[in-house]
Write a structure and sequence with these properties.
- β8 and β9 form a beta hairpin.
- With 412 residues, the chain is an alpha+beta fold.
- Helix content is 59%, strand content 16%.
- The strands form three sheets. Strands 6-8-9-11-10 form a five-stranded mixed β-sheet, with helices on one face. Strands 1-4-3-2 form a four-stranded antiparallel β-sheet. The chain has a two-stranded antiparallel sheet with strand order 5-7.
- α1 packs antiparallel against α3 (118-168), α5 runs antiparallel to α6 and α8 (314-331) packs antiparallel against α10.
C-alpha cells in the first residue's frame, strides 16, 4: 500500500472513531433525556388522573384501575403506598407505566397510566441515522481532503525518489529541492538536506578526480625518462630485467589513471558504428592469446550471437572484454569462458569469485582487483561500459568463479 493511501486510511479511521465516539455520547445523552421526559410526562398524567378520579370518579384516557397488564411487581409496590414508574411490553409494544394507590369504595386499588414509547424510539432511531450519516459524510469529506493533501506529499516524495535515483546513476547536477520544494515544511527540509549532502559528496568526488588526473599527468613526464633510462640498461642483466618489468607496470598504471580521469571528466567521446559481436570476440581472443596478454591461458569460446551486430565503439568494447579476461587470468582460475548471445556477452572463470565489496557496490579504484591491490581494470571496464550505454553485472557462479555479464543497450 502506498504512503498516500496509508495516510488517507489513517485519517478516515481517526474520523470514524471520533465521529462514532461523539455519536455514542450524543445518543446516550438523548436516550437519558427522552426517558426522563417520558417519566415526567407519565407521572404528570397519573397525578392529573388521580385528581380527576378523586373529584368525579371518572377515569381519564389511558387510565385504569388494577390493569391486568401492569407488571405484578409494580402493582405490589403501588399497594404498599408507593408511586412507581416501570417499563413492560404489551402486545409486542414497549409501554411506560406510572402507578399509585387509590381508594375504591372500601378497599385499596392501584390506578395506573400507560404510555407507548413508539415516538421516543422513533426519535432515537432518527438520531442514530443522523449520527451514521454524519459519520459517513465526515469520513468522505475529511478523507477527500486528506487524499488531496496526502497525494501532494506522496507525489513530492515520488519525484524526490526519482531524483535520488538519477543522482545514484551519476547525475549529480540534479537538485531534489527544485523538484519537490513547495514551501517550508518537513519534506522541503529533507530535500534541502539531501541537496547539501549531494553537493558535498560531489565536491569530494571532483577533488578526487582532479587529484587522480593531476597525479597521472605529473607522473607521466618523469616516467617517460625512466622508461628511456631502463632501455639503456644491459640486455641480459637480471636487475635490468626487473627494473624494466617494474617500469612497464608503472607505465600501465599511469595510463590507466589517465583513462580513468578522462572517463570521470566525461571527455571521452565514443565513435559508434555497427560491430559484429562474434567476429569481434573471435578476433580479440586470438590477438590476446598470440600476444601473451593472457599469460598462456586459453579462452573457451561459446559464441551464440550469430550474425548479430551492435551499434557501439568497437575499440572501447574490446577494451572492456580485454580487461575482464585479464582480470580473470590474474585473479581467477581456468577454464576461462567467453559466451555471447545477441543481447549479452559473459566472461566467467573457475576461481574463488568476486569479493563481497564488488558484489555489493561494484568495482572501485585501487580495491577492485579481486581482493585488493592496485586494480583499475574493472573500474575502466565499468566506465567504458557506461560510456557505451552498456551495463556490467558482477556475480559469482553457482559452482564458484567470477561471472561478469556485459548487457548491450536496447537497439532501435
Amino acid at each position: 500500500m502506498s504512503l498516500r493511501w496509508k495516510i488517507v486510511l489513517l485519517i478516515i479511521t481517526s474520523v470514524v472513531i471520533a465521529a462514532l465516539t461523539c455519536g455514542v455520547v450524543v445518543r446516550q445523552s438523548a436516550a437519558v433525556i427522552e426517558t426522563n421526559r417520558q417519566r415526567d410526562n407519565v407521572t404528570a398524567q397519573l397525578r392529573d388522573a388521580i385528581s380527576v378520579y378523586a373529584d368525579t370518579g371518572v377515569l381519564t384516557l389511558n387510565t385504569s384501575i388494577d390493569d391486568e397488564d401492569l407488571p405484578e411487581e409494580a402493582h405490589r409496590a403501588a399497594l404498599d403506598g408507593q408511586s412507581v414508574t416501570t417499563m413492560s411490553t404489551v402486545d409486542g409494544e414497549d409501554v411506560l407505566w406510572a402507578a399509585a394507590p387509590v381508594e375504591v369504595g372500601t378497599h385499596s386499588a392501584v390506578i395506573s397510566v400507560r404510555q407507548s414509547t413508539r415516538e421516543s424510539e422513533a426519535l432515537l432511531d432518527g438520531i442514530d441515522r443522523a449520527v451514521l450519516l454524519g459519520m459517513l459524510g465526515s469520513a468522505l469529506v475529511v478523507g477527500g481532503i486528506g487524499s488531496v493533501a496526502a497525494g501532494q506529499i506522496s507525489r513530492r516524495l515520488t519525484l524526490g525518489a526519482q531524483s535520488a535515483r538519477r543522482i545514484a546513476d551519476g547525475d549529480t547536477s540534479v537538485r531534489v529541492s527544485e523538484v519537490i520544494d513547495y514551501g517550508a515544511d518537513e519534506v522541503a527540509d529533507f530535500a534541502r538536506a539531501v541537496d547539501s549532502a549531494v553537493s558535498r559528496l560531489t565536491e569530494r568526488i571532483d577533488s578526487e578526480q582532479r587529484f587522480t588526473a593531476d597525479l597521472a599527468h605529473e607522473m607521466r613526464t618523469p616516467l617517460t625518462g625512466l622508461v628511456n633510462a631502463a632501455n639503456l640498461l644491459e640486455e641480459d642483466s637480471r636487475p635490468a630485467e626487473l627494473v624494466r618489468e617494474r617500469v612497464a607496470r608503472l607505465q600501465v598504471l599511469v595510463e590507466d589513471l589517465l583513462e580513468v580521469s578522462r572517463l570521470d571528466a566525461g571527455r571521452a567521446q565514443p565513435q559508434l558504428e555497427p560491430m559484429p559481436v562474434d567476429a569481434s570476440l573471435r578476433s580479440l581472443t586470438g590477438v590476446l592469446e598470440a600476444s601473451g596478454a593472457l599469460a598462456g591461458q586459453a579462452v573457451e569460446l561459446d559464441l551464440g550471437a550469430g550474425e548479430a551486430t551492435v551499434m557501439t565503439d568497437q575499440r572501447r568494447f574490446e577494451r572492456i572484454v580485454t580487461n575482464l579476461l585479464v582480470n580473470a587470468v590474474k585473479h581467477g582460475a581456468g577454464p576461462i569462458r567467453l559466451t555471447s548471445k545477441p543481447e549479452t556477452v559473459v566472461v566467467s572463470d573457475s576461481g574463488p569469485g568476486y569479493p563481497p565489496d564488488i558484489l555489493a557496490t561494484g568495482p572501485t579504484r585501487f580495491v577492485s582487483a579481486g581482493g585488493g591491490g592496485m586494480g583499475l581494470g574493472l573500474v575502466i571496464a565499468q566506465g567504458q561500459a557506461r560510456l557505451l550505454s552498456m551495463s556490467l553485472e558482477f556475480r559469482n557462479g553457482a559452482d564458484g568463479g567470477a561471472e561478469t555479464t556485459i548487457r548491450f543497450p536496447q537497439q532501435g
